[in-house]
Design a protein that fits this description.
Elements (H helix, E strand, L loop, with lengths): L13 E3 L13 H10 L2 E7 L6 H11 L2 E4 L11 H13 L6 E10 L7 H18 L3 E6 L2 H10 L5 E4 L5 H9 L2 E5 L9 H9 L5 E3 L15 H5 L12 H12 L3 H15 L3 H6 L4
Parallel strand pairs: 1-2, 2-3, 3-4, 4-5, 5-6, 6-7, 7-8
Helix pairs in contact: 3-4, 9-10
Amino acid sequence: MTLAAPAPAVAQGWIDSHCHLDAAEFDADRDAVVQRARSAGLTMLVLPAVAAANFDRVRALAHRHGLAYALGIHPLYTGAALESDLALLAQALQRHADDPRLVAVGEIGLDGFVPGLDMARQQQFYRAQLQLARSAGLPVILHVRRSADLLLAGLRRIPVAGGIAHAFNGSAVQARAMVALGFKLGFGGAMTFERALQIRRLAADLPETALVLETDAPDIPPQWLYQTAAARAQGQPGGRNEPAELPQIAQTLATLRGWSLAQTATITGRNAISALPKLARLCAADPQ
């Protein structure tokens, strides 16, 4: 099953450049989630892995639903990861090198926000995965949370074929540095909050060639899905993000930039393909 042709109002359709479709939150209705994405006009989702244990799962989902995937070890998982997991990643990248749906190494990076993480170990895995991406000739999908300068230092030391800085929330200077190294910056649900002044300023001011859209589903819900901590603790329904929210998220970007929705889909879709070039062939394929 592949994503069908987009709605006529957006000729090119939407690309969700970051979605964890394999997450347990989707176990009960994963096929329906993909169907809703199709109905909302999405033509492609990119599914990044987070640990060696889900490499096969994201690949299988991408093939089942006609999507794209990335393989990598997320910084939040480096504490439990084994050194041998890097070897497993290297083997997987080599084994699936000819798979048109394998578009990047990711989700990799550094997290300076979550307490208790070993930054030295994170950096070890980050640098090793940059080397693997470089050897494979693939772009990377970066996790950036209070870590932009360290990530940039690693990229300058081990250059790669660009990619996407997911859920970017750094400074304008850091954003420009990422762009100068060939990266696009991902904007999603956080942008829909009026209080997210820095994110909205970046979305409005960066060159249009720097912007891609994402949901990070089931995480980073937009303002209309957000739940307070108290509501979550009480187990109230709602709060889960999903790819079908992307067009409404995109409306915020369109408003900030003065674009139509059709322009927003075209520009951000073109940028996603520029960041992850193997998407070009997938997005050009006739729906099945």
